[in-house]
Amino acid sequence: MCGIVGLIVKNDAGKNWMKFLPAATHALTLRGPDAEQHFTSDETAFGHCRLSIIDLSAEANQPMTVNEHVIIYNGELFNYRELRKELEKDSVPFRTHSDTEVLLQLFKKNGSAMFESLNGFFAFAIYDTVKKTCLIARDRFGVKPLYYYEDGNCLAFASEIKALLQFPITKEMDHESLLEYLQLNYIPGPATIFSKIKKLQPGHYMMWDGSRWQVKRYYSLPEVIPQKIRTMRYDEACTQLFGLLDDAVRLRLISDVPLGSFLSGGIDSSIISGLASRHTGQLKTFSIGYAEHGFFDETDYARTVARHFATDHTVFSLSRTDLHESLDAVLDYLDEPFGDSSALPVYILSKLTRQHVKVALSGDGADELFGGYQKHIAHYRAAHPRLAERSTALLDPIWRRFPKSRNSLFSNRIRQFNRFAAGYRMDPASRYWRWCSIADLDQSAEMLKQFDEQVASERRQAHTQWIQSVSGLNDIMMNDVHFVLPDDMLRKVDSMSMANGLEVRTPFLDYRIAEFAFSIPASFKLERMHRKKIVHDAFRKFLPAELYHRPKRGFEIPLHSFLTTELKLKVDEITSAGFLAEQGIFSAPAVQQLKQQLFSPDPEDSAARMWGLLVFQHWWKKVMQ
After folding, report:
1. Could you read off the pLDDT of 366-394 as tens digits, one per residue?
2. Which CATH number does 229-369+476-548 carry?
3. If you ran DSSP here, which 8-state letter would residue 448 be given?
4. pTM summary value
5. Which of 2, 49, 154, 436 is catalytic?
6. How far apart are CA 541 and CA 539, in angstroms?
7. What CATH number labels 2-219?
8. Active-site residue 134, yes or no?
9. Tens of pLDDT along 570-588?
């Protein structure tokens, strides 16, 4: 796991950018603190910061050169030993025990056809010094990030935007991305907050043939599923899921450094931790809780799971003071606005976990694949309404009168009723967008002084393109895999863990499991009252019974109380009339209305929206001002 940066120049003007490579590489030091090296030629410059996980020797450092090829690589191939054995049958020589060399040799043998054999996550570039060609790729589901910038002189790419900004790139803000950010609290790809910097999409690669770049897709989950549709009984599917996930966990235990597992006390992380404990000695597990706010604390469930599987368990108990003390470190690390507030506890958990291990397993991906979100149940009920759903929609005027927030069970339930009623009469794509958002389009548009409405509309259509039918719940989950998963969930875990030099592995995102998830009927995953049905049932005899009689909670923080106490002065600062006028981006009356709602008895989702604004303002002052 590492940080990579590269430059492919097209002319003499582009060569002038090469002098910025050391600074660009050094900007990624937190991702890879163990080694930092460079490679340069007349038309190429590669930089690499290494986090040593497999083959800790200096021979495995990067950029790695084998004959005429040079590679920089961020990620892990979990089946690299099997791939190496196949290559050795063809007398391919190896000088290291790294998966990096396996990847490079596999490319030399198979070219872009190699992708179908890779089981892992990655972002890498391979340059041919003889043919002057270059391939840049990102893994199937976007676990590892890759950003790029291109003009007439060169193409620059990196694991993080902060590395690209070390080159003389014009920092021009994309206002349509800001509009999406105000709705979602993150920016979906391929766009970024910068109009000239893009994300390479998951399952894609870029090829430089010596004169031009081409972007190609090598993997499409919707396209592989029809070839793999299976007819099986539900009990057979449960058995198959158990076996697939057990093998995915087994593969992800390869490491030459200490390894552990995140354990929140939810079903997903409990399954991963339990399976890992079957294949290794006493597993180290880690969880985080809130000493001052029991509504957000799940550590008792985590302790139950740890006892059940006899893991070496560590609980980190946090106060709002702990959150406050880590705030600047998190905000300073973000190189584009990212307003998912759970990034803060993920950062702290990663920082504390890194004191014990260098690799951690997580349960990320299960919700998107198997229908684990409240919105999935809501979509099911909206598509198959009964009296309860019709009544909830009809009572919309009543829900509006009650206080709504995420701060308690009652106010959160009212908030959910209100959101359901608002989305009930929408078409499926519009409903999906609304239920993914923390603010509707009108609320977000009122905040901004400028954006192109046509461009924004085209982007929303592109982001919901996998929703094809009124009742297609697999469509909803497929859209999550392409939309929510890479740019919110995986972005959060990658940036916050790598800021602490911690590698996080996600067994649920083994491509075999993803393909299995969409080859079974949605009814195996969702019922009117049950989310992730097949996940729960496949592991019911494996997990402690207590986990099946508890409410699901996200990895949330007591955000409202945090913003209205410790962060009140910061809120006042970023919403002041003078600052907003100087900035010239936001409508001051709309911002003041948001602030008033935050401090009102009926805050609704204003805490999430204000947090997103706070994150943006910090970023803007650091990067753009």
Report:
1. 999 999 999 999 999 988 888 888 888 78
2. 3.40.50.620
3. B
4. 0.94
5. 2
6. 6
7. 3.60.20.10
8. no
9. 999 999 999 999 999 999 9
